[in-house]
Amino acid sequence: MRVSGLLYPFSNSTAFKVEALLENGQLHIHYGENRAAKCALDALTLSTSIPGVPVQATLPSGERFVPNDPNFVWPGRASPTSIASLERHTMVILSALILTPLLIYALLFKVVPASAVWLVEYVPESVVDTMGQQSMYVIEESFLSPSELPLGTQQQVHTLWKDALKALDLSDDQYQLSIYDSEHFGANAFALPHGQIVLTDDLIEALKDNPSAIRAVLLHEIGHVERKHSIRLAAQAFAGTIAMSFIFGDMEGIVELLIGSGNVVMGAQFSQEMEWEADQFALDRLAHLGHSNDDFAQALQRLQSLTHDNEAPSQTAPKWLEYLSTHPSLEERIKHAQSYQTD
Amino acid sequence: MDFANSPVQSGPHTPKLVRFSGNSRDFFGIWIVNLLLSIATLGIYSAWATVRTKQYFYNNTSIDGHRFEYLATPIQILTGRVIAALLLVAYMFCIHYFPIVGAALAISLTFLAPWFINQSFKFNMRMTRFRNIRFSFNGSYGGAFKVFVLLPILSVFTLYLLMPWVLKKIDEYLCNNIQFGDKPFATTLSTSTYFSAAVTTLLCSLVAIPLVLGGVFAVGGTLAGSSQVLFILIPAYFACIYLLKAIYQAMIRNHIFNSTSIDQVAELHSDLSPAKFAVVEVTNILAIAATLGFAYPWAKVRKAKILASASALTMLAGADNVFDTLDNAESSLGDEAATLFDIDVSLT
After folding, report:
1. Where are chain B's structural domains?
2. Neighbours of A191 (CB within 10 A)
3. Which domain holds residue A185?
4. Are residues A159 and A19 in the same domain?
5. Cβ–Cβ of B56/A134 closer than 8 Å?
6. What domain of life is recorded for the organism (chain B) (predicted)?
7. Degrees (nearest 5) of the Cα angle B98, B101, B105?
8. CA distance A278 to A238
9. Least confident of A39-48, A243-252, A272-281
10. What is the ipTM of this complex?
11. Are residues A304 and A202 in the same domain?
12. Same domain for A72 and A13?
């Protein structure tokens, strides 16, 4: 068999157009003036096979032969299960087209969250404390101002809080409640990983005629701390970033952006899941302490009426945008709270 | 006709066109299988994926029938990536949990960066071969520190007015330290071209941004709802960025190529039209976004074709007499030491 191609002598930029002769398991190439290269076919070092790229052969003596035909197959060297044959196979390509999005989904929504849950177990207490205190410092400086509620009202909330802690058998070393005024957050409550829980003036104002609802909100926030949600969120972002950069490292900007937006949706889904967990925690504890699950439903309903007052009805977000929201829709949460049954 | 007695003639003074012979069908198969296996192996295969992609693009780029080659092995890429990932983990961990250690680390990274950049260029050049001759990169730490750390910091004090000059210095540093076998590259760049490229890009942005915004409003978009921002403003923003980047890159690429020669071997030429390149880049990015990424192989091949067809080389008399400095027997000891660091510490 004769194969035309280019021959490159060892370590030198000259090149020769040649016809290689493949015969009886031997390769013969004559080039230049009376120069020749020959060796057994088995002794050739072949380059990796890639669709559309000719497989080059390097001789033991250092010459390199590149066939002109990208589809040339070296006799006795074709392996039917190589990666290159997968890359050429239409059925493989089609199934990869379907499998890849599924795997990306599984990675973002299953593997990364699972590894975050696993990571959380290994985060030491001191790290949790530092993280919480530093976040609190930033939030306090940027968005919070001292509470403007009458001391009496604040005292009532603190009493509710102490009773709830005692009933739940939680130490007040670990859990602290603070009340702040905040234009930025409006009527809101949040929990920091080291056990600090913040209620805003607006929230207490909105629920002041219904202390049981305030207690339900407090239980929801305690749920976030007990289930280590902030740490999980940080671990999740961490694991997500590492996985993304490691797996999709050499994609160009826009692909990273697409996958990055997948990461955002995942973060939002994850956060929704944590809200459900905290809701469940609050409902379980309410039942456990002999209060009504309706306390929590009422708190949510009050919050809902507040947001509705501020928004024109036509402005409600389209359904699909809920996937980008960090909280499940209030309606669903109210429904869930109302239909809560103790198992 | 007897092929065997004719060395390939590199006729002097006839520019040889660069050719890209890849096609999007072949590359699509490579890409999708790479992606699938990379995810399925949690990133391990991405090193093999990188090598296969580079080999596909290098081997399909040819000058006068001679193909480029990419020589790195997947293990080298994987090692570099694992090290980079570990550094990233350590760095992110410190930033999150020990801010002071993190700050110290950030400062020491500033001093390590020139070394990493040099190492990466050395690796990538050594892994590139053409006509059996490898490229090499000889940049020094001091040279890299000057152009990548010192000058950019100084340009801050000039309100970035000196930035085009700094970019010129960076490109000069990179080009002048490349060698093809035993023949060095020589590049003399002009500061005024860098400034005029920057000004042209700036002027284009003054035209492009109002035009894009006008277009958005013309098709009835308002910037009120978050869905509008998500589906109109963000793509428009990216289209603008790619447009301006392409215009600048085309002008600078032409200038660098046309000012570069390889001693006795070749002169480089490029006549990439900034307008055409910008159209290709913007339509590429929109196609990728519209197909959720699946047009990526097509876009990458299309770009490689445009770049290749805009490039040419004039071969000089010495083109056949280049010797590989890296394969010499006496340097094998040095090679052994080099292989210890023969990795590109990067995630990309």
Report:
1. 139-176
2. 22
3. 115-338
4. no
5. no
6. Bacteria
7. 130
8. 22
9. A243-252
10. 0.79
11. yes
12. yes
Mean pLDDT on A51-73: 91
Q: What is the pLDDT of residue B276?
A: 95
- One domain, residues A159 and A224: yes
Q: Which residues of A touch B237 (CB under 8 A)?
A: none
Whether B288 and A254 lie within 8 Å, measured CB to CB: yes
Question: Which chain B residues are within 8 Å of A14, Cβ to Cβ?
Answer: 7-8, 131, 320-321
With CA atoms as reference, the chain B residue closest to A238 would be B92
Asked if B81 and A249 come within 8 Å (Cβ–Cβ), the reply is: yes
pLDDT score, position B306: 95
Q: Count H helices, E strands: chain A?
A: 11, 11
Q: Are strands A64-67 and A2-8 parallel, antiparallel or unpaired?
A: antiparallel
| Residue pLDDT, tens place only, B68-80 | 999 988 888 888 8
Is A91 part of a structural domain of the chain?
Answer: no
Q: What's at B294, amino acid-wise?
A: F
Query: What was the pLDDT predicted at A259?
Result: 63
Question: What's the CA gap between A223 and A164, in Å, rounded?
Answer: 12
In chain A, residues 254-313 whose CB comes closer than 8 Å to chain B: 254-255, 257-258
Per the domain annotation, does A99 fall within a domain? no
- The CATH number linked to A70 is 2.30.29
Using DSSP, how many helices (H) and how many strands (E) does chain B show? 13, 10
Q: Are B12 and A39 in contact (CB under 8 A)?
A: no
Ranges under pLDDT 50 in chain B? 1-5, 10, 328-341, 348
Nearest to B7 among A14, A88, A241 (CB): A14
Both A308 and A198 in a single domain?
yes
Do the domain assignments include residue A89?
A: no
- How far apart CA A159 and CA B134 sit, in angstroms, is 77
What domain count does chain A have?
2
The answer to the question of residue A33 being in a domain is yes
* pLDDT tens, position by position, A81-130: 688 888 888 999 999 999 988 988 888 778 888 888 888 888 888 878 88
Sheet with A196-200: strands ordered across = A145-146, A176-181, A196-200, A189-191
pLDDT of residue B6: 52
Together in a domain, A54 and A132? no
**Nearest alpha carbon to residue A262 among A279, A277, A281, A247:** A247
How far, in Å, CA of A143 to CA of A210, rounded?
A: 26
Mean pLDDT of the residues in chain A = 83
Confidence of residue A322 (pLDDT cuts 50, 70, 90): low
Residue A252 has pLDDT above 60, yes or no: no
Residue type, B305: K
Q: What pLDDT, on a 0 to 100 scale, did the predictor assign at position B3?
A: 45
